[in-house]
Amino acid sequence: MKIQENISLKEYNTFGIEAKAKYFCEITSVNELKEALTLDGYPDFFILGGGSNMLITQDLDYLVLYLNIKGIETLWEDDDHICINVNAGENWHRLVLWTLERNYGGLENLSLIPGNSGTAPIQNIGAYGVELKDIFVSCQAMEIATQELQQFSKDDCKFGYRESYFKNEGKGKYIITSIQLKLTKRNHQRKIDYGAISSELKARGIEDPSIQDISNAVVAIRQSKLPDPKELGNSGSFFKNPILSKKDFHNFISSNPEAPFYKVSETEFKVPAGWLIEQSGFKGKRYGDAGIHKNQALVLVNYGNATGNDIMDMAQHIMTTVYNNFKIIITPEVNIIK
Ligand code: EPU
C-alpha cells in the first residue's frame, strides 16, 4: 500500500474538475482498507469510487482512499437464477457487459451508467424503469469505527428513489466493499414499458427483444441524450426529480397542464426537473466553462476548466430561478464535496 502526495483528481471524477488530494492511496483488497483506516497521522479521509456522482469544490486536504477492489464470482445458482458477488471497484457497465455475455438478465436497463458497483447502493441507481433494488440481495460494508465487515440485507439498506440507509442514518459510518445480486438465467423479466425504450425497439423493428436488444436500445437512448464524460465532463443528472404532494401537484399542473409527470403513489407525483429547467430557459446555456447540456437540461457540464464552484454557482442560479418560476424546490442529486 503506497501513499502518494499532491495527486490531481481530474482523471478520477467524471466532471473532470481539477482538484488535488494532499494524500492519495489506492486500495485493492479488504485487508488494505482495514490497514488504511488504522494508519497513524491521517485522521481524516475521503472514499473515492468511480467519481461519477460528485462535485469537488476544493482541494482535499486529507487522505483520499481510492477503492479499487476487483472481482466477480458466483455464489450459488440453480436452473433459473444465479447470485453473484461483485467487489466494490468493478466498473458498473463492465459488470453489465459481463452479465449479458453470459445471458444473465436483470441489469440490461441499467446499461451505460457511469461509476462503480460499490457505490450503486448508496443512491440506489436507476434508469428506464429499473432500480438497483430490483436485483439487489445484500451488500457487505466495513464499519469505519471498528473496521469490521457487516452484511446488509435489502431491507437494511432502506432503498428509496435515489436514496438509501448509506445516504442517511448510515452516512459516513460504512464503506461498501461488495454487493450481491440475483439475476435470471432464463424467463427474463424484460421491462420495456418506459416510453423511450419501447419506441427505440419499435424503430429498430424488434418485437420480441432479448436482454441484449434492450441493453442496445438503452445504450442508444443514453448516447443520444447524455454526454460521454470522456468527451464532456458531467455527473449524469445533477438534480433529483422533485416529488410533490397531491395539493402542490394540483396547483402546479393546473397552471402547467402540458408538463410531463409520473404518479408515484396516491398522494405523491414526480415532476421531471429537466422539464422545469428547460422551461426556465436554461437548456444549452453556457456560463464560461460551466453549462447546461443541450439535449438534457438535468445534466450540468464542464467544458474544460470550470471549477466546482463555477458549477455550484450555476446550479444555485438554476435552483433559484426554478423556484421563482414554479414554486418548486429542486435539490442536487450529486454529492457536493467541500
Ligand atoms: N425533459 C424535458 N427537458 C429536458 C429533459 C427532460 O422536457 O431537458 C422531459 C422529457 O421530455 C420527459 C421527462 O422530462 O418527458 C423525463 O425525461 P427523461 O426520460 O430523460 O428522464 P429524467 O427524469 O430527466 C431520469 C433519471 C436518469 C435516467 C432517466 C431514464 C433522475 C434524477 N434521473 O431522468 O438518471 O437515466 O430518468 O430513466 O431520476 C442519473 O441519475 O444520472 C440519470 C441519468
Oligomer: single chain
Overall geometry comes to globular
How much is the average pLDDT? 97
Class derived from helix and strand content: alpha+beta
| Elements, N to C (H/E) | EEHEEEEEHEEEEHEHHEEHEEHEEEHE
Trace the largest sheet across and list its strands: 6-7-12-10-11
Taken as a percent bin, the fraction of beta residues is 25-35%
**CATH class placement of the largest domain:** Alpha Beta
Q: How many domain regions? A: 3
* Number of helical regions: 8
Write structural notes for this entry.
This protein has 338 residues and is of the alpha+beta class. The protein contains eight helices and 20 strands. A five-stranded antiparallel beta sheet has the order 6-7-12-10-11. Strands 1-2-5-3 form a four-stranded mixed beta sheet, with helices on one face. Strands 13-19-18-17 form a four-stranded antiparallel beta sheet, with helices on one face. Helix 4 crosses helix 5. The structure holds uridine-diphosphate-2(N-acetylglucosaminyl) butyric acid (EPU). The site of uridine-diphosphate-2(N-acetylglucosaminyl) butyric acid has 19 residues, from strand 13 and helix 7.
Q: Key features?
A:
28% strand; binds uridine-diphosphate-2(N-acetylglucosaminyl) butyric acid; alpha+beta; Uridine Diphospho-n-acetylenolpyruvylglucosamine Reductase, domain 2; Uridine Diphospho-n-acetylenolpyruvylglucosamine Reductase, domain 3; 8 helices; globular
